[in-house]
Amino acid sequence: MKLSEDILNELKTISKVVSDVPYLNVFTVNANYFSGINDELKARITVDALYGSQNNFAVPTGYFETLSFNILQRIKEEENEVFTETKEHSALITSIGNKNIYTAPKHYFEELSFTTEEKPVAKVIKMSSARGVFKYAVAAVVTGLIGIGIINIQDRSDEKLPDEVSIQTAATISSANDILKTGTFDKELETVSDNDIVQYLQQGGQDVNAALVAASTDDVTTLPEPAEYLLDENALDNYLKEKNLN
Amino acid sequence: MKKFILYISFVFAIFNASAQADVRGMEQNSKKEEKIKALYVAYISQQLSLTADEAQKFWPVHAQYEAELKNINQDNTAELDRQQAVLNVKKKYQGNFNRILGTERSNNFYRQDAEFRKKLVERLKQMRQQRQNNNNNGGGRLQRGGRPRPQ
Fold first, then answer.
1. pTM for the full model?
2. CB-based contact B55:B45 (threshold 8 Å)
3. Buried b / exposed e across A140-168, counting CB within 10 Å, b at 16+?
4. How many domains in chain A?
5. A interface test, pick of B124, B135, B147 with most A CB neighbours within 10 Å
6. With contacts defined as CB-CB under 8 Å, which chain A residues touch B39?
7. What is the number of structural domains in chain B?
8. pLDDT tens figures, B133-149
9. B59: Cβ–Cβ under 8 A, 6 or more apart, which residues?
């Protein structure tokens, strides 16, 4: 309380008028004031009280009848304003006008198919399934033929069948019997060529040149004398050359 | 597709022709070899005095023996290994030859076999000597029935 008195005293020094205002609650209402306020407010509020006697939403007579005309008129006026402004800035753009440049001649699209040039269309070759199978069949046959060819040739060149060997042996024995009967061994031997003899001997694993040297040295009387080696360092080479071995 | 078949046929034809040529070449070589074989059979038959019955048994066994030796000589093995393998085959067939010819003639077969080869070497030496002489006499010109000496 002391604090309130101090505040009041201070207020008196500041403003006497304010300090003289009694310390009362000015916002008090009568008892049951709010219980009946609802009905009281409804009774006071009327349409006239809100809007008065004049209708604010009324429109002039014939307003809607002329509305569309007025809107179009307004748009035209604005367009004219744009046109005038554009004309002032650029004569070129004005010359284009407001014509629709994306128009097509009459019946253009109806006649379009006749005026279009037909491009040559490539021939379509249909790959039927039968053709594909045929291709693989041909490949298989060709591969088979090659395979059979290889096998046949290898069979012929590799091993001779036992029957073939026995037939060959029989043929050889028959030829040998003929040679023995006619006594033409030496004569037949003379008909055998140099190369055939070499080939036969080589097939038997024989070193032909070594055999020729051995055959030549069998006859010691034909060999150079020991002194000849001393006199001529090519004595042995000459001997071999003489024997057709070098 | 047609080109593919044509190409394959062409390749196959070349391959076949080449193979046929090889076969013909082999057949020609075989004929030449047959002549020397006939001489060999004649020589061995005469030297061993083979009867028809012995020949009938001996030559098929000999054919197998010869085939085994041929296989060994075709292999590129070391020389001593090759000789050892040849000796093994000879020993392997010795029993078979003994049963057909008897021991003595069987041994003689191996001797005569070597003798035939020696005869061929002699013939070869003789031909080369003759060619050498022809070349010396003819100034190196090609003689009738002869061939120039290989350099």
1. 0.47
2. yes
3. eebeeeeeeeeeebeeeeeebeeeebeee
4. 2
5. B124
6. 176, 179, 185, 188-189, 192
7. 1
8. 888 776 544 444 444 44
9. A169, A172, A173, B41
The alpha-carbon gap from A179 to the nearest alpha carbon of chain B, in Å, equals 7
Query: Which residues in chain A come in under a pLDDT of 70?
Result: 1-3, 47-56, 114-118, 128, 154-168, 217-222, 243-246
A67 in a domain, yes or no? no
Indicate yes or no: CB of A153 within 8 angstroms of CB of B22.
yes
A71 is a domain residue: no
Residue B34 Cα distances to A172, A206, B57, angstroms: 7, 18, 20
How would residue B61 be classed by pLDDT, with cut points 50, 70 and 90? very high
Position B95 scores a pLDDT of 93
Residue A243 lies in a domain: yes
Q: Which of A31, A51, A71 is the last residue of a domain?
A: A51
**HEC letters along A24-42:** CCCCCCCCCCCCCHHHHHH
Please give the residue range of the domain that contains residue B100. 2-136
Which residues form the domain of A32?
A: 2-51
CA distance B15 to chain A (A): 9
Distance of residue B102 Cα from the nearest chain A Cα, in angstroms: 21
Are A145 and B43 a contacting pair at CB < 8 A?
no
Report the 10 Å Cβ neighbour count for A176: 25
User: How do residues A62-110 score in pLDDT, each as one tens digit?
Assistant: 888 899 999 999 999 988 888 888 888 887 887 877 777 788 888 888 8
What mean pLDDT is predicted for residues B55-71? 90
Say whether A243 and B129 touch across the interface (CB within 8 A): yes
Angle (nearest 5°) at CA A194 between A193 and A196: 65
CB distance A135–B1 less than 8 Å? yes
